[in-house]
Amino acid sequence: MIALVTGAAGFIGSTLVRELLKDDVVEQVIGVDSVTDYYDPQCKRRNLSELPSSSRFRFIEADLNVLDLYELLKNIDVVYHQAGQPGVRKSWGTSFADYIDNNIAATQKLLEAAKQSAKLSRFVYASSSSVYGNSEEYPTTEISVPRPYSPYGVTKLAAEHLVSLYAQNYGLPTVSLRYFTVYGPRQRPDMAMHRFIASALNGRKIELYGDGTQVRDFTFVDDVVNANILAGNSTAVSPGAVLNICGGSTVTVNDVLDTIGSLAGVKLQIVRTAKVAGDVFKTAGTNVGALREIGWAPCVSLEEGLDRHIRHLRASLI
Ligand code: NAD
Ligand code: UGA
Question: Which residues belong to any copy of the NAD-dependent epimerase/dehydratase domain (predicted)?
Answer without folding.
Answer: 3-246
